Amino acid sequence: MATRRTTRPRFTLALLVLTSITLITLDYRSAGSGVTDRARGLARDAFEPVGRGVGNVLSPAVNVIGGVLDFGRVKDENARLRDELARARADAAAGADARRELKTALDALDLSFVGDLPSVAARVTGGAFSPLQLTVEIDKGTEAGIDEGMPVVSGGSLVGRIVQVGPRRSTVLVLSDPGLSVGVRLTSTGDLGVVTGDGGRRLVMSLVEPKTQVKVGDEVVTSGLQQSQYPPGLPVGKVTSVKRDSAGLTQDVIVTSSTDLRRLSFVRVLQWRPE
């Protein structure tokens, strides 16, 4: 009985296929025949359930294949968009860096406080910020008229002096170095003092009289006293805080440079020598 149940559907399907082929042959031979048209209609009705069944079976597979192909296209498109976004971000970062360097260069070149002093513009090519010494390298030397001991300015203030020089390269000892001392004065009172670095952006002005009225925001400039290594009036920074020593004999004035001494890009070397 099982064999008959299995064989009957196969026999029916084969009979339908054979009938379809016969009708197609008759269609060519008897175009427009009413008998043939009725037979074709019967064949279509007989095959319709089979066609729907085959379509239902194949439809999920077709959808899966289409989904795989669409997924590949979406993945490629996402990769392309990510690449374009990365390039746009890189271009924006490069533009911001170029604008920052341009501003730094303009600040270094346009220094009204320098007056008529001849100077040489230079680019910072490296640095050595160690606990022992805070220095930067610049791309100009004796061939450009630079000598040892010349003051270096940038961004509206003093940043150090030349301590080593070669034909095309020089070393600048930065003002924040604890071993560098500069004679200065308060513009508000005229009081004199000495500024030394603390290894960062802050400077400490010592030897200020305890009775001197020092205010936050007061400007500090080079004193330019006889045999000083710096010309008078070069901006050094502004007062940010004041602290008396424990004995009350002097005041320690904290001065912050207007230039970030650890992020120098361009400087100007003043061709000045003490008299």
Low-confidence stretches: none
CATH architecture of the largest domain: Beta Barrel
User: What separation lies between the terminal Cα atoms?
Assistant: 126 Å
Helical residue percent? 25-40%
Largest sheet: 6 strands, antiparallel, barrel
Radius of gyration, rounded?
A: 44 Å
Question: What is the CATH T-level topology of the largest domain?
Answer: Thrombin, subunit H
Spell the H/E element sequence: HHEEEEEEEEEEEE
Main sheet: strand order = 1-2-5-4-3-12
The CATH class of the largest domain, by name, is: Mainly Beta
Q: Categorize the overall geometry.
A: extended
Continuous helix count: 2
Characterize the structure shown.
- This protein is of the alpha+beta class and 275 residues long.
- It has 2 domains: 1-109; 121-275, Thrombin, subunit H (Beta Barrel).
- 38% of the residues lie in helices and 28% in strands.
- It has 2 helices and 12 strands, in the order H-H-E-E-E-E-E-E-E-E-E-E-E-E.
- The chain has helices at residues 2-29, 34-109; strands at 119-129, 134-138, 151-154, 157-165, 170-174, 181-186, 192-197, 202-208, 219-222, 235-244, 251-256, 266-270.
- The strands form 2 sheets. Strands 1-2-5-4-3-12 form a 6-stranded antiparallel β-barrel. A 6-stranded antiparallel beta barrel has the order 6-7-8-11-10-9.
- Helix 1 (2-29) packs across helix 2 (34-109).
- The longest helix is centred in the first third of the chain and has 76 residues, at 34-109.
- It is extended.
- The termini are far apart.
- 23% of the residues are buried.
- The mean pLDDT is 75.
